[in-house]
Here is the input.
Amino acid sequence: MKTKQRVLLALLAAAVLLGAALWAVTRSNAKAEQAASAAAEGSIPLSSFAAEDLEQIEYTFNGETYTLQYSGGSWQLAQDPAYHLDESACNTMRTALMALNAKRSLTPQAGEDYGLDSPQLTVTVTAAGQSTTLTFGAENPVTGDLYVQKAGDDAIYTVSGNKAACFQLDKAGLFGSFCPTGLTASTITQVAYTLADGTSVTLNAVSEPTESASSAAYETVWRLASDPAASLAQDKVQSLLSALCTYATAQATDADLSACGFDAPVFTAVVTSEDGSTVQLAYACGTDGWYLQVEGEPSVYTVDTSTVQALLLTENDLLAQE
Here is the structure.
């Protein structure tokens, strides 16, 4: 019996030692992975600040300078305050600069400009009243890292090549797609519109009893103001409502309205929502595509062809097929 107990104790001790060894190896591997990750990202600080301290990011890309001002959790393009920015893209830039580290520090070699004489990108970030300017030069053909110089520092640094990718956006790339009309299809109660040839159509949302056995059940049905008894293709009406709520793909705050076709719009509408508010819209065909303008706003928005096609319906087009 004692011999069996000694064998069991020996096996238990061996298991404990094996577990301890496995834990040590796992911990060592985790530390090695963390060290490798830190090395890949770099450990030499170039830019560091708290998110709430950020005031502005200014960058020059392809010869154009963009100044992104940050306040109260929102972004604004200083050169065009009415421009609708992609908040996610701006936040990505902020994150990239909050803890930007270099991998290596180099002493500049004579006759080598590292691509900094004609930089592909220059970024100045201002946080808590302090500004840091970083100039991104050429790419190292072997490592893929970028050469960077910090204003006021003679050293040349290298950073991971993906650190500059989020800044490679022109004005169009900074646009944040959204619905300029501010409409929601489910809350629209009336659409009164006019086509290019002068044809006018008014659609009303009407609450009617369902065809089910329960007389207390009602549903919203769309009807023509000119012929309430006419049966409409409700799917076409819903497509029209969805088109009125579509997202824009681009924005111009200084567009030539004539060049955009607004001298003769193909579709104008007054849309009423259930709270009684109204929105006046105009769609037109210009030299480069289809455009939307919302009354009271100076901007012109680019929309897809399919959006406008869903709107250009006469009363006959809306009738249900027998």
About this structure: Residues 28-40 have pLDDT under 50 and may be disordered.
